[in-house]
Write a structure and sequence with these properties.
Oligomer: heterodimer
Order of helices and strands of chain B: HHHHHHHHHHHHHHHHHEHHEH
Low-confidence stretches of chain B: none
Number of strands of chain B: 2
Mean pLDDT of chain A: 94
Structural class of chain B: mainly alpha
Strand content of chain A: under 5%
Shape of chain B: globular
Order of helices and strands of chain A: HHHHHH
CATH class of chain A: Mainly Alpha
Mean pLDDT of chain B: 93
Radius of gyration of chain A: 19 Å
CATH architecture of chain A: Up-down Bundle
Strand content of chain B: under 5%
CATH topology of chain A: Four Helix Bundle (Hemerythrin (Met), subunit A)
Number of strands of chain A: 0
CATH superfamily of chain A: Cytochrome c oxidase, subunit III, four-helix bundle
Number of helices of chain B: 20
Number of domains of chain A: 1
Strand order of the largest sheet of chain B: 1-2
Distance between the termini of chain A: 57 Å
Distance between the termini of chain B: 68 Å
Shape of chain A: elongated
Chain lengths: ~200, ~650
């Protein structure tokens, strides 16, 4: 395999740069996926049937916690990639671990939030509004869950195999994914929660 | 026994029991044959685990042909039922199931894999690459598609077929009106196949953008590659929409949510809207590669370069953009305001402009050409007038005020078959004849091929032109019978005769394959059609690595340049070639997906959980696996090249 040393490790082989481009295209598809969910949500937002409205169930505290946790994790994964670029394996693993822990905490708060909704009579079966809300949030949450395991496997591989063109490529792609989830969350925070509370 | 009751077909008939027996016997025969001839190892090593784009392409082709006959049988049954008034061949329920599965099978499990076959087989060869960007993902795409198709097809004998139309509009497709698991099959089988298609889209965009031969800039790509690129961009933007839609449909049917229900705030029209946001671009995913094939065929057999290359590319880009802004024309009559209808009416009619540009480009390519009437060319020449007719009736349907007359009548059915059969199916058949020698090393018989083309066209005209008339007379689509007083009898009888002639045409294709396999000469050159692009510059059969030396390209007709202008395609020495290893994971993972889908359809939650874990284990194994591929040595390349040169 030809390695081009003038490029960062994660771009250094042809296969690596193909994978990064391919993943960007995949993120394009993910944008369409979430766009469809958002479009559905905006369509069904006020169709609450006999169930509660957004303003009745949204609470700012857990949502703020989630936002802070996820935004911070996006920052730490960036630090992890920076550490990877300067070849500091130990720092990179630490930052990636912090990222995943923050992701896990985010999921914890989100599950707590879902349980609260159900207790307040807003389950996924209640109305068109709750179905769209919980499907959109749930899809994002499922992405974070998948990302958690993916990130975990990458940490294990870097621990075992060190910073090679392959492992750095995987870590870099993972970071793209993680940042993307953060972007989606910003939309969820602004256009579902803040808009719904107004 | 309660547990097994759910797998029974809700309204069995002789046809269903016969199909059960036929499926069972075929499966036993295939297994017995493989065991008797000791081919299990061969099948596993050479096909089930392959990551070679050419073999994956051929598997797509086989699936497409298989599904063509499944969908064709549905079609002939429908025409037979409608041939005479008040016919009792099929009851209403069976008729509903058959028009539903006919639509889905033909669009998603016949036309799509046919397109995928061409993209897989042709695109890497045409751009001078050794494989696609992600060979293993490509295998996974195929196997997911295949398992989705198989899952959909067993619905006929296990649990009942979907019966709410290929569009599966809610509330009809909801649990209230579609109680059987049929619509669950729809949601899950298409979901699985759709994931495969989405991955193909990502794979081919990356391949085309990054792996072209030296010198091949974007504007020097052959036209089929351009059409494949644009179709894949549409796939990446349209298929996630379908994934979300089907997921919501599944939730509504199996979890009890209220996206599309009539109560608790649900909105049935949301399904129709999102469906067509995917559905309309989908038809351009099918037609653009078909246009690409016509461009190749027409320029090859007119012995001229393609007229208006840039306008061809531009019009395809324009069509791909417009395709996302016309979805509402599928339901002009369903309660939007006049302004909304007008806007979508205009965008719809605007698509006729770039399409017309393409038609004129093909005609001008023919002008002053030295036309050779081979079978692929014959299909292309039949395509132009017939497709134009379909395009014109499309503009008629696009006028929202007039659409109130045409909506949901046989006029519409005639229109979309009029664009899809001469448009897509003819292109597939033209391409099949055109690329057959490159795949298998012999040509398909020209005489039988031309007979087939004429029979299909005569059958097509007889089958679908009467529908325009009976549609304008008020015959509604999807009606399982009609009274004698309605006066549709004669038209429908003509349609049935046409459909029977088409059926003979399709059987002739199979006969042609059989005949040519036995009798056609194997002594053909690498370039039997005197073609213009790179896929014809390598050996037949194509070696595993496609090109021993990567070609260098100067124009969009690299081979023509080499033949006529003395351009040297292959410069330099052999170097060892890096190739990916075969892998069983895509196949195994797709099998697990099949079980997952089946369990989900019947709401068997424990197997669903277990198979979900299985799918993630496959992904984890892939993550931890270290596979750097293998190298083909210079010595091996020299040996292969000498053999293939037939010295």
């Amino acid at each position: 395999m030809k390695i081009d040393n003038s490029l960062p490790l994660e771009y250094s082989t042809e296969e690596n740069s193909l994978k990064i481009l391919g993943f960007w295209i995949f993120l394009g598809a993910e944008i369409m996926l979430f766009a469809t969910l958002f479009a559905t949500y905006f369509t069904l937002e006020n169709r609450t049937g006999s169930g509660p409205t957004g303003a009745e169930i949204f609470q700012i505290t857990p949502v703020l916690f989630e936002t802070i946790l996820l935004l911070t994790s996006s920052f730490t994964v960036g630090l992890g990639i920076h550490a990877m670029r300067i070849g500091n394996k130990k720092a990179m693993i630490s930052f990636f671990s912090i990222t995943l822990l923050l992701g896990l905490a985010f999921l914890g708060v989100e599950i707590f939030e879902f349980v609260t909704y159900v207790h307040e009579g807003a389950s996924i079966q209640t109305s068109a509004f709750t179905a769209a809300l919980l499907t959109t949030l749930g899809t994002h949450g499922a992405h974070v869950t998948l990302g958690f395991f993916w990130g975990l496997f990458i940490i294990l591989q870097i621990k075992k195999r060190g910073l090679t063109p392959q492992t750095t490529n995987k870590a870099f792609i993972f970071s793209l994914y993680w940042h993307f989830l953060d972007v989606v969350w910003i939309f969820i925070f602004s256009f579902i929660y803040l808009k719904g509370m107004m | 026994m309660d547990f097994f009751d759910r797998f029974a077909v809700p309204h069995p008939s002789l046809a269903i029991y016969a199909s059960m027996a036929a499926i069972g016997l075929t499966v036993i025969a295939v297994f017995a044959g493989l065991t008797y001839f000791k081919k299990w190892g061969y099948l596993w090593r050479e096909w089930l685990t392959t990551v070679d784009h050419k073999r994956i392409g051929i598997m797509y082709l086989l699936s497409a042909l298989l599904m063509l006959f499944r969908g064709g049988v549905d079609a002939i049954m429908m025409r037979a039922q409608l041939a005479v008034p008040e016919n009792t061949l099929l009851d209403a329920q069976h008729y509903n199931e058959i028009f539903t599965t006919h639509g889905i099978v033909m669009i998603l499990f016949m036309a799509m894999p046919f397109i995928m076959f061409f993209m897989n087989f042709v695109v890497p060869l045409q751009i001078g690459a050794r494989d696609v960007a992600f060979p293993r993902l490509n295998a996974l795409s195929f196997w997911l598609f295949f398992m989705g198709a198989m899952l959909f097809n067993i619905s006929f004998v296990v649990g009942g077929s979907p019966d709410a139309g290929w569009t599966s509009y809610f509330p009809l497709a909801g649990t209230e009106f579609s109680k059987s698991v049929g619509s669950n099959y729809y949601m899950i089988a298409i979901q699985i196949a759709g994931i495969g298609t989405l991955m193909t889209g990502i794979n081919f965009i990356t391949t085309i953008l990054k792996m072209r031969a030296p010198g091949m800039t974007l504007m020097k790509m052959p036209m089929f590659t351009w059409s494949a690129l644009i179709a894949n961009v549409i796939i990446v933007f349209a298929f996630p929409v379908l994934a979300v839609l089907l997921a919501m449909g599944t939730l509504d049917r199996q979890i009890g949510t209220h996206f599309f229900t009539m109560d608790n705030g649900g909105m049935d029209m949301l399904w129709a809207n999102i469906f067509w946001v995917w559905g309309h671009p989908e038809v351009y995913i099918l037609i653009l590669p078909a246009f690409g094939i016509y461009s190749e065929v027409i320029s090859t057999f007119a012995r001229r370069n393609l007229y208006g290359y840039k306008s061809m590319v531009g019009s395809m880009v324009l069509i791909s953009l417009l395709s996302f802004f016309v979805w509402l024309h599928h339901f002009f009559t369903m309660g939007q305001g006049a302004l909304t209808n007008s806007i979508f009416s205009i965008t719809t009619m605007a698509i006729a402009v770039p399409t017309g540009v393409k038609i004129f480009n093909w005609l001008l390519t023919l002008r002053k050409g030295k036309i050779v009437f081979t079978t692929p060319m014959l299909y292309s020449m039949l395509f132009i007038p017939l497709f134009t007719l379909g395009g014109v009736t499309g503009v008629m349907l696009g006028m929202s005020a007039a659409d109130y007359q045409y909506h949901n009548t046989m006029f519409l059915v005639a229109h979309f078959h009029n664009v899809i059969i001469p448009g897509v199916v003819y292109a597939m058949l033209a391409g099949l004849h055109y690329y057959w020698p490159k795949m298998f090393g012999f040509m398909l018989n020209e005489k039988i091929g031309k007979w087939t083309a004429w029979l299909l066209s005569i059958g097509f005209v007889l089958a679908f032109m009467p529908m325009y008339i009976s549609g304008l007379d008020g015959q509604a689509r999807r009606m399982y019978t009609y009274s004698e007083a309605a006066g549709f009898g004669a038209m429908n009888m003509i349609s049935f005769v046409g459909a029977a002639i088409m059926a003979i045409g399709f059987v002739l294709i199979v006969y042609n394959i059989y005949y040519s396999t036995r009798y056609e000469t194997r002594d053909i050159s690498n370039d039997p059609w005197d073609a213009r692009t790179l896929e014809w510059s390598t050996h037949t059969p194509v070696p595993e690595y496609n090109f021993a030396i990567l070609p260098e390209v100067r124009s969009n007709e690299a081979l023509w340049d080499a033949k006529k202008n003395g351009h040297v395609l292959f410069k330099g020495e052999y170097e060892k070639i890096h190739m990916p290893n075969n892998s069983g994971i895509p196949f195994i993972m797709s099998c697990i997906f099949f079980v997952w889908g089946f369990s989900f359809i019947f709401s068997l939650w424990i197997p669903v959980i277990l198979t979900t874990i299985g799918i993630f284990i496959c992904m984890a194994l892939r993550s931890f696996e270290q596979d750097h591929g293998r190298y083909i040595s210079v010595k091996e390349i020299e040996e292969t090249e000498t053999n293939l040169r037939g010295a």
